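Open question from group meeting: does this chain pack into something compact, or does most of it stay loose? Before anyone orders reagents, we agreed to write out a predicted structure and look at it together. Recording both the input and the output here so the notebook holds the full record.
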Amino acid sequence: MKAVPYRPIPGWFDLSQLNLPKEKFETYRQLQVLGEQYQRTIQYQKEFNKPQFEKLKELCAEMNIDLILNYGALDKAAQAGEGGRDG
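Structure tokens returned:
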């Protein structure tokens, strides 16, 4: 499968600015894409997909905590004039 180039998602931390290990970068990239898809359909997810929705929120929160504590995501976002969004 051909790799898709990374495109930062507005409202999420820009992973390309955080010097993540390659495997973690790819995992978090996929999690951000999934989180963004769920955000677009949040009412449906709350009503019909609640267990998966709750697990995704938990995973996004853990990802953001890791990015903030271990990779300086808030500092990088502030320097770039961006803001991270809670998952």
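Observations to bring back to the group:
The chain has a mean pLDDT of 89.
The radius of gyration is 13 Å.
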